[in-house]
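In this section we turn from sequence analysis to structure. A common task in structural bioinformatics is to predict how a protein folds when a small molecule is present, because the ligand can shape the pocket around it. The inputs are simple: the amino acid sequence and a SMILES string for the ligand, here pyridoxal-5'-phosphate. Study the lines below before reading on.
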Amino acid sequence: MEQENVYNLDRNMKVHNFNAGPSVLPNEVLYKASKALIDFEGSGMSILEIGHRTEPFMAVMEEARNLTRELMQLDDDFEVLFLQGGATMQFMQVPMNLLDSGETASYIDTGVWSNKAIKEAKLFGFVDVSASSKEANYNHIPKQYTIATQSKYLHITTNNTIYGTQWNSIPETEVPIVADMSSDILSREMDFNRFALIYAGVQKNMGAAGATMVAVRKSMLGKVSRQIPSILNYKNHIENGSMLNTPPVFAVYITMLTLRWLKGQGGVAAIEQINNKKAALLYDEIDHNPLFRGNVAKEDRSKMNVTFTIDKPELEEEFLKFCKKEDIVGIKGHRLSGGFRASLYNALPLESVEVMVEAMKFFSLKKA
Ligand SMILES: *Cc1c(COP(=O)(O)O)cnc(C)c1O
């Protein structure tokens, strides 16, 4: 019954949403959230009107944390938290909790977001930038680097949302690895237990803006000598079950629904198959269509954010207009890398990519 209503959302269902973030969410999630916004589980109150320490909301938070743990198959040393401040706050919260002054952390610079993380870490200790692809405008993932063994951790950005590159394998190192997975969290199978800390603003691939997922190993904490303000101390959040203060209730609720949806799809392994199909379809068109061109190293191409350019720059605006007419939205490239960017997050249907590819073929023939 409810399953049918899911497709009864009061909006233009034809839109193909390639936004980079915030971005597309499953219809099922939006449908359920819209109901909960009015009346949460028959309580006569909106999800926005109940206390965060009430039984029903505590259950939402628990489920969100447990589903994250389950979908990522995290071992018992990990704690999953939903915090505020975005991935951007993690740029400083990570070194504040893990890096003592005088100590060194290694960072690999693969773009704007890595850079911001590096800048914040320098406020707390020494930063060794082990490798950078800056000189090549971040069009690849560095392959040659050595991580200093005395480093407290190595920080990587697994997917570079702006440039369209992605780490295909986890670096081989004994040093604990910290990863910003904001734009590819839960999009592919990975041994998440190889990491010491994983963070992600949830608004790209696992929920709505306002919450940040942090999965942290308890064994990493309590080692720095500095005083950490209560709200910034991971330990306090763990001890309080991610309820140290009022959490972003609606963002956590949307995240819980998105995680339920993902589990219903068959989990990370199943969504990865679909994500691979979507990316292959679009890259194949980019590689075969004479008008378009990929702009990053093939072996490092992101399956989440596909960046490309048009060979005749004078046609760029026209193509964007054409896409708009075809209900394809969000494909204008980031101002730093130009061209186009199509974000293929978990909730984007394969059909949207098919429509996009058709539009590219049609436009190209028209201009030939
Ligand atoms: C979007 C993004 C961020 C910034 O996230 P906020 O939640 O806005 O702070 C950081 N890192 C990556 C990889 C991103 O894609």
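The chain has a mean pLDDT of 96. As an exercise, try to locate the residues that line the pyridoxal-5'-phosphate site and compare them with your own expectations.
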